[in-house]
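Re: folding output
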Amino acid sequence: MSAVAPPSTETASPEVDRDKRNAIRRAIGAGSIGNFVEQFDYGLYGYMAPILAPAFFPASDPAVAVLSTYAIIAIACLFRPLGGTLVGRWGDRVGRKKTLLWTIVAMGVTTALIGALPTYHQIGVLAPLLLLFLRVIQGMVSGGEYVGAVAFIVEWAEPRRRAYWASYASNSCFVGILAGAGTAALTSWVFQGPALDSWGWRIPFLLALPLSAVGIWLRRRIEETPEFVRATEDGTKVVEAPIREALRSQWRPILAFCGVSIMGAILSYTWVTFYPEYLTGTLGLPRWMALTSNAISIAVLIPMLPLAGVISDRIGRKPMLIAGALACIVVVPLAFRVGETGTFGAAIASQLIYLVPEFFLTGIITVCTAEMFATRTRFSASAIAYNSSFSIFMGITPFVAALLVSTFGTIYAVWGYLAVAAGLALVVISFFMTETYRSGLGDDKYAH
């Protein structure tokens, strides 16, 4: 793609506007498909953890087996900073498009391989070790996939509508989780008893291969982002050491992003992975009701996120984040209280209440992932920031939440865990975070 010319002072023609909008839509599709595949796998794994547990761990203690299955997610996510940093360096040197083509292939293959693994009863302790190996590879690749996709979309987006367009990256994650939940529920309904435990659970993981094929097709059809081309002058000004440069010039926004995003990770992944298991294992709700109630709440959130993006594009990122942090402290315990009734209706109502902080935080943290960092090191800086905070807490939250409930005997211990993160975020947003909603994406950003 040739270098982008300076913007003209003349009014763009309707044809130019239409071409730009079409390019943005293609960029959204190309960027979002990887997020969908990643979260489809993550949601599927989380929802089917009780089914996977006896397949990969000894069945003598079911609670320990489920905790071990969650622990594999946590361990794999610890490798996301390493993988994200390596993928981010590549993305800043060779471009967003080439990098995202590679990551979609790797994610699809590793997810499908999980569906082909032998079980603990077949090969013993080697089974969970192979499962852990595949999830570590997934974690490393995913560490660069999400931030790269967000950067790709934001760099294509219109400057005053970045949160709106980036909301579709967030939505692709929730659509992926919803698809994972629906697939898990359908699989549990179609294959019951021995059929589900022996081979039925494998089928959903194999679906990653055709999904990845669609992603490759979409990503091959879109050009490199104009912002990256402009910043690097078609590759002649690529940063030689983007990781070192990001840490040198952008360590302040990296730390600020970490302070905010921990809250978002705990909030989201308590809801989408731990809460359905809590409804089933602790409150005694049938599994299909727990999964269905969770899917309904996700479906309600999806159309709300573009609205949150529109509002943030008008009033800024910081007011939305502050409102979300306060909602974590005030609204989440109310949601848990409603859910304790233990009925299907209460499960739905509690999760709809839970959407209040999600509305203010999810899409806004997403756009900040790209906006807070300069173009030539955006992939590397955002990978370091995102994976040092959001990814790690995303992975450990289901395990920590289950452990807290097991230790203290109440889900309000999980709320305390979230409230501490929200308090930290309020301090960071108020005193250390710079507003970005009207800022440019150029390389003078945070150049210290």
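--- second protein (sequence, then structure) ---
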Amino acid sequence: MRALATVLVLVLLSGCAATQPAPEPRELTLAAAPEATLREVVGLLMEEGYVIRHADAELGRVEAVLARWPGYRVRAAVSSEGQGARASLTATRGGVPLPPHLLDPLLAELQRRLGLAP
């Protein structure tokens, strides 16, 4: 009986140790300079109510969290691609990856701000 209880506890604990899958990025290639794109990403997130926790212009990365419930976290990376930039965004809520299509409104607004909206 004691062995069964021990095995049951180990099985339950191993279920808790399972890792979450990495969030799938939503990417967009833009005909804009990477530096300008990163600046616009930071400004957009701040206007949407996100608090910038970390930003590194040299690496082209930004991490922001929503200052109100439900506590979304957005990570953005901007890199050079040809004559333009590639913006990549991922989002989580409570450590759980969110579907990438939820980032489409942010990317559309980023395009508009850069003067690249269709």
